[in-house]
C-alpha cells in the first residue's frame, strides 16, 4: 500500500519511531488538515495520542487526554515524545510533547499533553444524560466548508441540526449551543484517534453567541473517553452526534462543554476546552 | 507569625524553594487535609498550582489547570517541580510534577499537571448558563463530616441544598447531581489556590447515583478559572455555590461536570474530572 492509498487522517497521524530513542517519534503536518495558522487542533491532539497508542509499553485504552496548545505548529516535520511516567496495575499515566526544530535546529515545545490509559473491566454502567431526540442525519443538509486556505473542514461531513455556522455577522447571536451530525468525509471506521479529533470539531462558540467573527483559538482541550474497541467497531463509519455549548465567556477566554454520541445513543466521549478570544 | 498561626490551608500548600534549583520546591503533606489513603485531591491540586504561582517567572493568573493523580501521595515530604515550558506574549504554559522519595531515596512521580496562565484583558463577557435560583446558605444546615480517619471535610463548611451525602446505602439513588453552599470552615479569603481545591470537594457521584459505597477516586481533574483578583477579593470569605453532576458511568470510570458560583451569581470556575470506580 502506498502512502496515497492511506486515508488522509491516517497520513496526518502517521508517526515513525526515531532509531535508538525509546519514546521519540517523527511526523509531518498534513495540508489536508490545515487550519488558518497551523494544523486543525483535533489533528494535533490525535497525533499526540498516537505517540502513546503505538508505544510498545502501552497499557489499555485512552480514558483521559488533555492537550495544551502552547505555540503554533508550522508546516513541516515535528517530533512527538511519549513518556509513560507511571504504570500501575490497571492505569498508566503519560506525558506527551510535540516539538519542532527552530532555525538553529533545536527542538522547541509547541504542544504539551497528558494522557491516562487503562485496562477497563465491565462494571455497573449508566448514561446519566438524555440522548438528544433529533431526526436522523439524512434529514439535514451537509454544510459546505468555504473559508479560503482552511482545508480541514473538507475532511468532515457535517450536518448541522442547530447552531450552524453564522451566515450573517450582525451581532444577533442568542445561543452558544450547536448540534450536528458528523463523520469523516471519506469513510473511515471510528477509532480513539478520530474520536479525539472530532472532539475539537466545533467552531468557536464566541462566533455563534455573538454572531461576530473575533479572533479565537483553543488553548487547552480535555477529552474523556467512555468507549471501547467493540463499541467503536459497532459505530464503524456511522454518524456521531456532536453537541457543544459554552458556559462562561470572560475577559478573553471561554469554555466549551461537548458530548459526542453514537447514532444509537451511546455517549462515546465528553470533552471540554478553554478558548482564547479577542475583544 | 508562627506556623500554627497560619490557616490550615496555607500550611497545606506551603512550599519552600530548593536552594540552587530554579524550578524545585519542597513541601509536606497536611494531616488537616488527609483523605482515606492520601491527601484530599483538591489540596494536591492546590499545592501543584502553588508551585507555579510563587515561581519568579510567572505570567498572569491561572486559566486552566489539569491534575493527574498517578499514584497515592504518602504522608511526609514531597517535591514540586514547576517548569514554564513556553512563555508567549500573554499566555504561559507550565508542566508541574509532585514527587516523593522512595525507599532508595529516588524521587518518584505521584502526580502530574499542566497549567496555562495568562494576562487577561477586559473584553465582551457573558455568563451563558442560568445561575441556579436557590435559597441562601443560611436556609440550609451544615453537614457534619463523620467518616473516621478522613480529616479534610472538617476544613470546609458544606451546606447541601440537594444531593446530600447518602444516609442509606440501599441502592435507591436517582440522580447524580449535588448542589451545596460551601466555604472554608475557618474563614479565609478566596484565592486561586482555594478555588482549585474547592473544585474537587464533591464526593464521588457514583455513591449518590447508586446509593452504594463502591471504591472510587479521582484520576484526572481539569479546572477552568473565569475570575480575577478583584472578583476574588469581592467574594472574600463568602459562600460559593457548588453544582456537580455526572454524565456517563462506564466500565470503571465516570465523569463529573461542576460549576462554582459566587453568592452574587458570578461563575468563578468550571471543572471536570474523571473518576475511577469499582464494580
Automatic annotation (TrEMBL), chains A, B:
InterPro entries attached to this UniProt entry: ACOT8-like_C, Acyl-CoA_hotdog, HotDog_dom_sf, Sec_Metab_Biosynth-Assoc, TesB_ACOT8-like_N
Family annotation (SUPFAM superfamilies): Thioesterase/thiol ester dehydrase-isomerase
Protein name per its UniProtKB record: Thioesterase family protein
Coiled-coil zones: none
Native source species: Pseudomonas multiresinivorans
Residues annotated as domain Acyl-CoA thioesterase-like C-terminal: 142-276
Domain Acyl-CoA thioesterase-like N-terminal HotDog: 32-115
Pfam families: 4HBT_3, 4HBT_3C
Amino acid at each position: 500500500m502506498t502512502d496515497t492509498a492511506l486515508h488522509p487522517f491516517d497520513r496526518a497521524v502517521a508517526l515513525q519511531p526515531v532509531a535508538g530513542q525509546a519514546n521519540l517519534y517523527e511526523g509531518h503536518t498534513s495540508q489536508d488538515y490545515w487550519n488558518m495558522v497551523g494544523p486543525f487542533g483535533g489533528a494535533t491532539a490525535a497525533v499526540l495520542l498516537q505517540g502513546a497508542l503505538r508505544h510498545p509499553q502501552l497499557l489499555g485504552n485512552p480514558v483521559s487526554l488533555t492537550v495544551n496548545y502552547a505555540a503554533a505548529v508550522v508546516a513541516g516535520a515535528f517530533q512527538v515524545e511519549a513518556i509513560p511516567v507511571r504504570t500501575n496495575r490497571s492505569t498508566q499515566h503519560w506525558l506527551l510533547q510535540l516539538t519542532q526544530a527552530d532555525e538553529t535546529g533545536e527542538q522547541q515545545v509547541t504542544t504539551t499533553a497528558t494522557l491516562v490509559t487503562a485496562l477497563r473491566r465491565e462494571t455497573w454502567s449508566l448514561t446519566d444524560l438524555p440522548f438528544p431526540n433529533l431526526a436522523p442525519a439524512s434529514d439535514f443538509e451537509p454544510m459546505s466548508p468555504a473559508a479560503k486556505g482552511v482545508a480541514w473542514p473538507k475532511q468532515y461531513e457535517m450536518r448541522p441540526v442547530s447552531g450552524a455556522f453564522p451566515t450573517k455577522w450582525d451581532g444577533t447571536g442568542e445561543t452558544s449551543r450547536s448540534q450536528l451530525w458528523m463523520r469523516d468525509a471519506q469513510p473511515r471506521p471510528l477509532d480513539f484517534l478520530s474520536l479525539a479529533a472530532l472532539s475539537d470539531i466545533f467552531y468557536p462558540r464566541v462566533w455563534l453567541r455573538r454572531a461576530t467573527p473575533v479572533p479565537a483559538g483553543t488553548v487547552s482541550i480535555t477529552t474523556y473517553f467512555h468507549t471501547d474497541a467493540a463499541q467503536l467497531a459497532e459505530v464503524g463509519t456511522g454518524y456521531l452526534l456532536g453537541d457543544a455549548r459554552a458556559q462562561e465567556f470572560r475577559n478573553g477566554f471561554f469554555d466549551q462543554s461537548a458530548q459526542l454520541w453514537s447514532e444509537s445513543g451511546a455517549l462515546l466521549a465528553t470533552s471540554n476546552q478553554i478558548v482564547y478570544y479577542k475583544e
